[in-house]
Amino acid sequence: MQQQIVRTEPAERLIEGGHSYESITHKIGSVVLSYKHPKAWYVVTAIAAAGVFMLITSIAWLLLRGVGIWGINQPVGWGFAIINFVWWIGIGHAGTLISAILLLLRQQWRTSINRFAEAMTIFAVMCAGMFPLLHVGRPWVAYWLLPIPNWTGAWPQFRSPLIWDVFAVTTYFTVSLLFWFTGLIPDFATLRDRAKKRISQVIFGVLAMGWRNSAKHWHRYDAAYLLLAGLSTPLVVSVHSIVSLDFAVSLIPGWHTTIFPPYFVAGAIYSGFAMVLTLVIPIRAWYKMQDFLTMKHLDWMAKIMLATGLIVFYGYIMEMFTAFYSANQYEQYLVANRFFGPYAPYFWALLICNGLIPQVLWSPKVRQNVALLFIIALIVNIGMWLERFVIVVTSLHRDFLPTSWGMYYPTVWDWGLYLGTIGFFTFMMFLFVRFVPMISIFEMRDLLHQTDRHHPAAATTAAATPVAHTEVTP
Amino acid sequence: MPQVFHRSSNTLARLSIVTGAALLVSTVLIGSNLSRSPYVTQVGAPVDQPVPFSHKHHVKELGIDCRYCHSTVENSAVASVPPTHTCMSCHSQVWTNSPLLEPIRQSYLNGTPVQWNKVYDLPDFVYFNHSIHVQKGIGCNTCHGPIHEMNITYKAQPLSMSWCLDCHRQPEKYIRPREEVFNVNYQPPANQLELGAKLVKQYNIQKGQLTDCSICHR
Predict the structure, then answer these.
(1) Is B160 on the interface with A (CB under 8 A)?
(2) Does A367 reside within a domain?
(3) Which of A61, A292, B17, B53 is deepest in the core (most CB within 10 A)?
(4) Is B162–A152 a contact, with Cβ atoms under 8 angstroms apart?
(5) Residue A468 pLDDT > 60, yes or no?
(6) What is the phi/psi pair of residue B154, to 5°?
């Protein structure tokens, strides 16, 4: 995308199907501007809308009755709310990794998926943010979490990682949203210029914020985008590290470990890529985007999933080793309790979902099998949820005093809220696909320009003007 | 292709940035000022009671001590609203036919308490104990205001957490000698901070603990 970047390796063919600048613009832009959508879009959106209603109902009942409708109690005070918070925040991390780190590392294949993954980040963080806010019990005074001079006359407890969470997550959401919107501005301008109806022209015109494709605009855009990428890069590591500190700073067996921050970050990227695959695979088929979201893209995402999955699995092994090596009876009991205690089925399922099954991704044949890849991604999503369940519940339900041991059973309202956020997330993603270009149009045109330079033979199939940035959108 | 927007849109776009920023700032300012205003806190707003009881008449004009009615204030968490019997200890003799006192006589005859309306209603998650404040030299009207001037009782302080913390952080600003606690005419001396610091020490008030969460939130 940046003109000043000199690419040393010849770029691979990341766009298939002999596209030209015009055909790329048409293929991606027409999804937004046309009224014809695959049947599957209507079906999934309708089901997801039902999920949104379930979410609203669950929240309304919660606000009326309080957190007592959930399964949380002594000794498990952190139930679904924290499990789901960590799960959703983790899912968002793939978007930031793809858009920021892969940009700085000049990985051109990110171009096809960054818009999509960033949208996923934003909606995932929205879902994540709901849980701690509702879990505080009185969300209308949640602004007490912010260090503003409010009328309690007291600052938040800065020594608590829960406050660090507030900063981490709000920063994460703000930067992700700005990054996403900045990347969208040139595409909104394209849509404004292509739209036939006055209302679309006005809406996209306002969103494009007066973008006129001038060299000055591109110059500022490049600087802003690179700056935001630089800002986002530390967030990939910091946000989930801080989330892990919610656990690691406490003295509970199974939480109080130094491996938590890197292990959580790896788990976040692992689950994030699993969610990208879960969503990209069906949408790519329904909207026939195989030319842009090629098998190469799926293959690379599967490889990242495999790599981060191995780091996560290493984390599991180190947890057990640390417990053994510590000679601490509480730590050792925790591991035994995970393997053979009342929640053992969850732990074994977690090992199978996160540790065992993804190993088939070593085989290139599996990585080329779209259906299998989709199933594995779903399994990893479930596995990562189980991981958070095991971390939160097994550590809390049997602590130092056997007299205070107990069990945790989620209620129908726990499930309603959780499934409701999945509905909300899906609903927002499908609205995004419908109303916003799901792949960055101008970056794809630029990518075509880059690859054509290295493959002169293909240039004949592409459009005549090879200067994407100064090209006037038709 | 015609232009989508008129030239004036540029001005509107710039204006919207300023307006957005101003809106954000003013929302915060309005919200924070409104939440502190008497409209929300009800400071100074007299509370309707079944009998228009006047503290001014009983305390200032008749000189009755606080503890004659609020008898448990020195030993208990609550100061206690007096039972009807306490009212009748005088009003069986004076103003026996006053129509204003009819609810009191009815209560006495039926044995059902008068339903007074709470003026100082602390949130349920706050633990407050009158006796410790009285024992450590916090005067009645430090919190309850010029009670001896009130015809109908009103709230004199906002009861916000920052108001509580103001004293818990610097008790020497408000503390007075124990024997002056029930003196509604007490005026703090010119050297209040000096005397206050001395009393804090003398009464063994642990300032470091006063702002612990669990002091009030148990």
Answers:
(1) yes
(2) yes
(3) A292
(4) yes
(5) no
(6) -130, 165
Chain B: residue nearest A157 by CA? B213
Mutant choice from B1, B3, B4 vs A, greatest count of A C-beta within 10 A: B4
Arithmetic mean of pLDDT over chain B:
93
Facing A154 at nearest CB: one of B35, B158, B161: B161
CB contacts of A210 in chain B (<8 Å) are 9-10, 13
B19 touches chain A (CB under 8 A): no
In a domain, A137, yes or no: yes
Over residues A199-227, the mean pLDDT reads 92
pLDDT tens digit string along B159-180? Answer: 999 999 999 999 999 999 999 9
Nearest residue, CB atoms, A154 vs list B28, B36, B165: B165
Least confident of A6-20, A212-226, A455-469: A455-469
A54 near A416, Cβ under 8 Å?
A: yes
- Is the residue at A466 inside a domain? no
**Which residues does chain B have within 8 Å of residue A153's beta carbon, measured at their own beta carbons?**
160-166
Note the pLDDT tens digit of each residue in A270-287: 999 999 999 999 999 999
Q: What are the extents of the domains in chain B?
A: 8-36, 55-79+119-216, 82-115
At residue B1, does pLDDT exceed 80?
A: no
**Total domain count for chain A?**
1
Domain that holds residue A363: 21-148+155-448
Quick: pLDDT tens for B44-57: 999 999 999 999 99
With a cut of 90, say whether residue A474 has pLDDT above it. no
Supply A245's token pair.
């500190």
Q: Report the chain B residue with the minimal C-alpha distance to residue A474.
A: B1
In this complex, is the C-beta atom of B34 within 8 Å of any C-beta atom belonging to chain A?
no
Mean pLDDT value across chain A:
88
Say if residue A14 is exposed, middle or buried (CB neighbours under 10 Å; 0-12, 13-18, 19+).
buried
For the segment B7-26, the average pLDDT, to the nearest whole number, is 92
H/E/C letters for each residue in chain B? CCCCCCCHHHHHHHHHHHHHHHHHHHHHHHHHHHHHCHHHHCECCECCCCCCCCHHHHHHHCCCCHHHHCCCCCCCCCCCCCCHHHHHHHHCCCCCCCHHHHHHHHHHHHCCCCCCCCCCCCCCCCCCCHHHHHHCCCCHHHHHCCHHHCCCCEECCCCCHHHHHHHHHCHHHCCCCHHHCCCCCCCCCCCHHHHHHHHHHHCCCCHHHHCCHHHHCC
- Interchain CB contact of B4 with A (< 8 Å): yes
Omega into A75 within 30° of 0, i.e. cis? yes
Mark yes or no for CB contact B36/A210 under 8 Å. no
Best A138, A141, A151 member to test B by mutation, with max B CBs in 10 Å, is A151
A331: tokens are 């730590």
Do the Cβ atoms of A151 and B166 come within 8 Å? no
Contact between residue A274 and residue A377 where contact means Cβ atoms under 8 Å apart: yes
In this model, does residue A456 exceed pLDDT 70? no
Chain A contact set for B166 (CB, 8 A): 153
Interface test with B, best of A138, A140, A150 (most B CBs within 10 A): A150
Write out chain B residues lying below 8 Å of A207, CB-based: none
- Token pair for residue B28? 């915060």
A113 by DSSP, 3-state: which?
Answer: coil
- Domain-embedded: residue A319: yes
Question: ipTM exceeding 0.85?
Answer: no
B45 reaches A (C-beta below 8 A) = no
Statement: residue A9 has pLDDT above 80: no
